[in-house]
Amino acid sequence: MTRLLRTVTVRGMTIATEYAGRHQPAQAKAILALHDAVHPGFDVAVKYGMLMYAVDGDWKHWVAGVNAKAKGTCLRFLWGVLLDDPLGVLRKGTATLMTWDFPLDAEIDPAQVALYVRDAVAKRDHFRANSKEISERARGLR
């Protein structure tokens, strides 16, 4: 199992390139720009129609996901409700998921994307240990 995950990490750019190739050129460009900003150190795979990033193959608690929509590209964070969001760019998704939308031809700042990804990684263990309570609080059940 570990060998497979290492192969996924090494092939990260190939997976991203294949995924980007399924989309229109402007979306593909954004997908690859986001991938370059997010990828280092993560396992990479296409799951649920998204280019996903996980630590140590923990796909249940994936850190970030990239997908394209008709009007642009999205960077999703599974526990986005915990992120600081200094740019005020995250919009609500599910109970804990938050999304950063990039319109077509938007300028993607890799340093800003990396800042959000680092914040997500820093809060990963807290989310894994408390995901039920965080989800309930986000849904207003607590």
Task: Reconstruct the topology from this structure.
Layout: H1 2-10, H2 12-20, H3 25-38, E1 43-47, E2 50-54, E3 64-69, E4 72-77, E5 90-92, E6 98-103, H4 110-122, H5 124-138
Antiparallel strand pairs: 1-2, 2-3, 3-4, 4-6, 5-6
Could you give a short description of this structure?
With about 140 residues, this protein is α+β, with helices and mostly antiparallel strands.
Give an overview of the whole structure:
The chain is of the alpha+beta class. The chain has one domain: Aspartate Aminotransferase, domain 1 (Alpha-Beta Complex), CATH 3.90.1150.200. 42% of the residues lie in helices and 22% in strands. It contains 5 helices and 6 strands; from the N terminus they run H-H-H-E-E-E-E-E-E-H-H. It has helices spanning 2-10, 12-20, 25-38, 110-122, 124-138; strands at residues 43-47, 50-54, 64-69, 72-77, 90-92, 98-103. A 6-stranded antiparallel β-sheet has the order 1-2-3-4-6-5. A hairpin with a 2-residue loop joins strand 1 and strand 2. Helix 2 (12-20) packs antiparallel against helix 3 (25-38) and helix 3 packs across helix 4 (110-122). It starts with a helix and ends with a helix.
